[in-house]
Amino acid sequence: KGYMMTAFDNVTLxxxxxxxxxxxxxxxLPDALILLDYMLARFTSVIRRLTVFPERMKANIELxxxxxxxxxxxxxxxxxxxxxEEAYDLVQPLxxxxxxxxxxxxxxxxxxxxxxxxxxxxxxxxxFDPSWHLKHVDAIxxxxxxxx
Length: 148
Known about the structure:
Mean pLDDT: 87
Order of helices and strands: HHHHHHHH
Radius of gyration: 25 Å
Strand content: under 5%
Structural class: mainly alpha
Number of strands: 0
Helix content: 55-70%
């Protein structure tokens, strides 16, 4: 069985500057950079050829019956003063019911006295607005050098 040297194998030999211990440095850095170059090239290729179908994306979100917005409801309940555990105990059964019975999660949330006692109609509407999740997209693109 062969032995492959790692960067940590160098620690005991740092005081000795011979060629035997520098193999990890000579191998790890170039290999890591070559791998990074390959990954970035592949990722760039995928993104350039990516075709987005907004209608299909919306249909896929709707397949969840609105359960994808459960985290937002949970977070809003926490912001209104519930503990995370209390909020989870309110949201999780509603999400499971929506998923298992193929019912609207929004309707279940709106008709839940425990949730609607903490969140008003506007809060619930805001929680199911997908634009909230996209609010930082422009800033992300600018940071990546892709926007103005």
